[in-house]
Amino acid sequence: MDPLFLQIVQEAWKADFSGWDFSWLEGRYVEEEPAWDYRALVLERMKGVQAMVDMGTGGGEFFSTLRPYPADTWVTEAFVPNVPIARARLEPLGVKLVQVFDDNDLPLPGNHFDLAINRHESFSGKELARILKPGGKFLTQQIGCQNSTRLNELLEETNTYEYADETLEKLVADLTSAGFEILQAREDFPVAAFRDVAAVVYYLKVIPWQIPGFSPEAYMEGLEKIHVTIQRESELVVPEHRYLIEAVKH
Asked: What is the bridge-based pairing of β-strands 113-119 and 236-239?
């Protein structure tokens, strides 16, 4: 087995990861943006808003780029290690942070928010309807049901991607049944390029739902094949899958 292959696999598996910071992948992984500019859409919707919430803020990395904030701004986060990171980054800016344990029971006031944004976080349409004011908007970019499944095809005999049934139609139906009017619902298939096998290992380590239970030892043969492919072709191109939904509460 190629010593270089083993070395970079071990390096990636041992590399640190905190918050929602993917800087370790710089130069190893290049991700194409979807057809829309989510950040620009959020900034446009924030104009004139008095109260907003960012659902699933991670370590606050993305949300911290959206300043200035409305007077009454909240964020939520469910992943325990991210909570102190987000708190340290956002609370000095006047943002209220709450930890979430259940999408169906958010620790947020009812009929309170003009805008809820959500980038890659699960949600309940019914609970969104509870926290938003009448006329309040929900803007979300979601990971699609076919996201990066090329990795599953290359490494697994059976695709174990646990969100394979999270279709755009299903998410739209959830919001519609909760009393929302859908303003737009779009999907796109941007691509990502892995420039070495270390990027694949790191990605699967920090995105554990792509291949549940992933470890290099369990998938060494497939990883070596990917390594050979990248050496030959300079990169492994993998289609991603994104949804954009904008909805307003009646």
From this structure: unpaired
Q: Does residue 157 contact residue 204 with C-beta atoms inside 8 Å?
A: no
**Percent of the chain predicted with pLDDT > 90:** 93
Fold of 3-249: Rossmann fold (3.40.50)
pLDDT band of residue 2 (cuts 50, 70, 90) is: confident
